[in-house]
Amino acid sequence: MDKRTKYISLKNPFTVFNRVLNIRFDSTVLQDGFVVNISDSCVYSKVIDSDCVIICVHVHDMLIFGTNMRVVNETKKLLSSHFEMKDVGEANVILGINIRKANHGFFLESVSLH
């Protein structure tokens, strides 16, 4: 093992782990027909007939949403068959944005910093 490899492994072993996990995740979703967003490589989408499902990945968390629960549940089933996952339910806040359900959709509002 050269000094550079030894340095990376000792300095931050999670960097290597995260990269391997990212490659596995990428491979899994791409093989299932997902496409990587050209503007953000942490966003994946898949169109099934007239339905769509989107996965947004942030570090070790992900947000999965779609046009209906069937495509969302199919995606969760796919991912849980390859990765250890914990479903924490519907998102209320993501990246500092409150998500509130309304009768005909959702409201997004930034979280107050006070």
Strands, total number: 7
Rg result: 17 Å
Strand order of the largest sheet: 1-2-3-4
Helical content (DSSP H or I, runs of 4+) = 25-40%
Structural class: alpha+beta
- What ranges have pLDDT less than 50 throughout 5 or more consecutive residues? 1-12
Q: What percentage of the residues does DSSP assign to strands (E)?
A: 25-35%
Provide the number of structural domains.
Answer: 1
Rounded mean pLDDT score:
80
Number of helices: 3
The general outline is globular
Order of SSEs, N→C?
HHEEEEHEEE
Task: Describe the protein in words.
This protein has 114 residues and is α+β, with helices and mostly antiparallel strands. It has one domain. Helix content is 37%, strand content 32%. The protein contains three helices and seven strands, in the order ααββββαβββ. It has helices at 3-11, 13-31, 69-82, and strands at 35-36, 43-48, 51-58, 61-66, 93-94, 97-102, 105-110. The chain has a four-stranded antiparallel β-sheet with strand order 1-2-3-4, covered by helices on one side. A hairpin with a 2-residue loop joins β6 (97-102) and β7. It is globular and about 35 Å long. The N and C termini lie far apart (50 Å). 7% of the residues are buried. Mean pLDDT is 80; it is low at 1-12.
